[in-house]
Design a protein that fits this description.
This protein is about 45% helix and about 10% strand. The radius of gyration is 33 Å and the shape is elongated. It is mainly alpha-helical. The protein folds into two domains: about 90 residues; about 80 residues, Zinc/RING finger domain, C3HC4 (zinc finger) (Herpes Virus-1), CATH 3.30.40. The strands form two sheets. A three-stranded antiparallel β-sheet has the order 3-4-5. A two-stranded antiparallel sheet has the order 1-2. The protein is built from six helices and five strands, in the order αββαααβββαα.
Amino acid sequence: MALKILDDLNIKTTDNSRQRQQHYNVDLDDFMGHSSSSQRTHIDPTHNLQQLMQTAHQFRDQMQATGNRDQEEFLDDLVSQLLEESQSNAKGPPPASDRFIRLLPKIKSGQIDSDETCIICKDNLKKSESSVTQMPCGHYFDRECLVPWLELHHTCPLCRFKVETEQTVKEEEEEEARDFMYG
């Protein structure tokens, strides 16, 4: 039945060996009548509507079938990529050092001169009831917002100013030990 409809509408199926998907090429002149208005013959409008509906249903069915395959393939690729990344030793940027987080200055909200806003929680820091801290780059944050960020990243959330990591602390300690030994 479907092949008869495709033949009636002069729809050709092509097989692309690379993608193995069917594509439909509709000859609109056959579907709508003739291309030139002077050559048009009278065609029953309900007949065209029926053909249009049949073609629309075929395209919908094809798109749904292809879409599901594409979505399944996308999800398979995504899961494979995530599994591969979880099994590799690749990691994101290192967190800030514990020493840096511990030594962050605690500033009372009343000591802030301007109407600074924590970009993480959007609270006005001058009116904030929580403790406020300042990064070396000069940006202010609610301490409760900044510490979790620094436990995952070694940068200012606003300007990406880099702060020390455990690795840089270790390197500094090793350098100090060498300087002490060799005077």
